[in-house]
Amino acid sequence: MTESMLNIILIVLLLLGFVTGLKRGFILQLIHIVSFAVSFIVAYMFSGDLASRLRLLIPFPDNIQQQSVASFVFDSGTIEDAFYRMIAFAILFFATHIVLRLAGSVLTALTELPILRQLNKWGGGALGFVEVYIIVFILLYIGAVIPVSEIQTPIQQSSIAINIVQNTPYLSSAIQDLWTQYGVM
């Protein structure tokens, strides 16, 4: 996959997020974003505990050279620690997100009020873009940790992917700290 191909895929995903948000509307999209934020916080707070348990269940591949993997993302820490934290983070994040989205879908009846319909639509588009951006951000970080050159090379060669991973306010440093400083919160 070339740099331009990954850049095109990322741009299309972000546009699809905007269009999806337009269709969902502001209120439903807000429910999705709030559940996203709460899921991130839950995963951030409890991934260390789960990671230590996952070490007992999932063996770390022996043949990985820790120095070469994801060096463009991580400055310190070991890939093994990041590997278990990433898996724990993903499990907690997606489980919490699904539960909260199901619970929040009850509030969507408010979106049919005539006065709110247009504002609801455009606000939803903006929030849809933000939601997909955060998903893409997390997937790119996960891809950077997976020790497979077919995944890492396109990410390292994509200017958009590198920019998302390294320059997203707050999230770039928070994820790097979370996944590289095992056991430290």
From TrEMBL:
Assigned keywords, A-Z: Membrane, Transmembrane, Transmembrane helix
Pfam families cross-referenced by the UniProt entry: Colicin_V
InterPro entries: Colicin-V_CvpA
Subcellular location: Membrane
Keyword presence, Transmembrane: yes
Highest taxon of the lineage: Bacteria
Name of the protein described by the UniProt record: Colicin V production protein
Lineage, highest ranks first: Bacteria, Bacillati, Bacillota, Bacilli, Bacillales
